[in-house]
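Quick review question:
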């Protein structure tokens, strides 16, 4: 390959990475703004549990204290010895006025064990509006009011939320948090700004019970990878739209070993690849720092250097935006930008292959 071609490839890499970094910094998601939260029908919150996650008791307590007129919390476990049971029982004693129920049911209905848990809860649902959220999600007291508000519009089928990380395990946990706050979140904002709305995240999905029935209940998800995505997608296939809530919740990030972070993030990458192979194949441009370095190794002209500086400044600005939005991120995390981006590119490369998670 001659020098001219290498120069063109280098410029293309630098321009692509820099353009994305600028977009990720500037993009604003098209979120649903709550203006009138009424009416507020009864809501059933579904919490599939497996083990005693860090801060599980605090997270469930926040749900028990919701400023909402009528709601039910259904916690499901598959194992009668699950340590989450003791936590739920303590909360039942602490909040006797809260409709908090625990369902222990070992039945397995498909390859997705989380969905099996949800299927075991389905018969106990009492209200017409539903909210699903992973066990490690922390919320504010107005959470139910705000995330269900869009359902008052009959055209809306699902509501979902972005989330920020709360690191709890040193540098490794901080790297995992940056995956959420400086890669995942910005990628969603960019997609939303350009018109995408088919989102469904485990952080929160709100929908009507009638919509769940229309897609065949949780049974439709029992053998699916990325059940959160497919729940939203199947409801939207009925003609209803999905919206992104203005609410941003918090997820606990407690990994202390790099092996666990690597496995989880590669799993996420492979899941994204399974849902959108063309988009995933081009997503290496989101790994700003290493792509700029590779580009500069191929193209060393003034234009390449100027574009790379723009990309690096935008990447720093993106990190600064994450710092402003998430008080749990320390300022010193800025030094992890090159590590985070290089790790991301390695994960992308590994996730190009493999067919299991």
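Suggested answer, residue by residue:
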């Amino acid at each position: 390959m001659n020098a001219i071609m290498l120069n063109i490839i280098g410029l293309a890499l630098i321009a692509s990475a820099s353009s994305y970094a600028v977009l990720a910094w500037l993009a604003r998601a098209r979120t649903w703004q709550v203006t009138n939260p009424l009416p507020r029908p009864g809501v059933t919150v579904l919490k599939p549990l497996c083990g005693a996650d860090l801060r599980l008791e605090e997270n469930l307590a926040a749900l028990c204290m919701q400023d909402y007129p009528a709601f039910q919390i259904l916690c499901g476990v598959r194992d009668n010895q699950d340590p989450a049971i003791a936590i739920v029982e303590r909360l039942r004693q602490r909040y006797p006025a809260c409709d908090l129920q625990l369902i222990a049911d070992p039945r397995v209905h498909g390859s997705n064990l989380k969905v099996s848990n949800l299927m075991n809860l389905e018969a106990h649902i009492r209200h017409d509006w539903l909210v699903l959220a992973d066990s490690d999600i922390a919320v504010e007291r107005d959470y139910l009011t705000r995330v269900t508000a869009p359902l008052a519009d009959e055209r809306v089928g699902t509501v979902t939320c972005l989330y920020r990380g709360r690191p709890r395990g040193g540098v490794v946990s901080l790297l995992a948090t940056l995956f959420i706050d400086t890669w995942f979140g910005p990628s969603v904002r960019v997609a939303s700004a350009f018109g995408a709305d088919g989102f469904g995240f485990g952080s929160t999905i709100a929908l009507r019970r009638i919509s769940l029935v229309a897609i065949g209940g949780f049974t439709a998800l029992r053998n699916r990878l990325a059940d959160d995505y497919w729940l939203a997608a199947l409801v939207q296939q009925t003609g209803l739209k999905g919206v992104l809530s203005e609410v941003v919740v918090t997820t606990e990030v407690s990994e202390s070993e790099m092996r666990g972070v690597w496995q989880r993030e590669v799993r996420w990458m492979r899941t994204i690849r399974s849902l959108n192979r063309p988009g995933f194949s081009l997503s290496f441009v989101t790994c700003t720092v290493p792509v700029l370095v590779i580009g500069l190794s191929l193209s060393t002209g003034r234009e390449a250097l100027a574009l790379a500086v723009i990309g690096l400044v935008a990447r720093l600005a993106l990190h600064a935006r994450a710092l402003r939005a998430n008080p749990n991120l320390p300022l010193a995390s800025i030094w992890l930008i090159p590590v985070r981006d290089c790790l991301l590119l390695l994960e992308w490369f590994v996730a190009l292959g493999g067919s299991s998670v």
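Why it works: The first strand starts at residue 31 and ends at 32. The chain has a mean pLDDT of 93.
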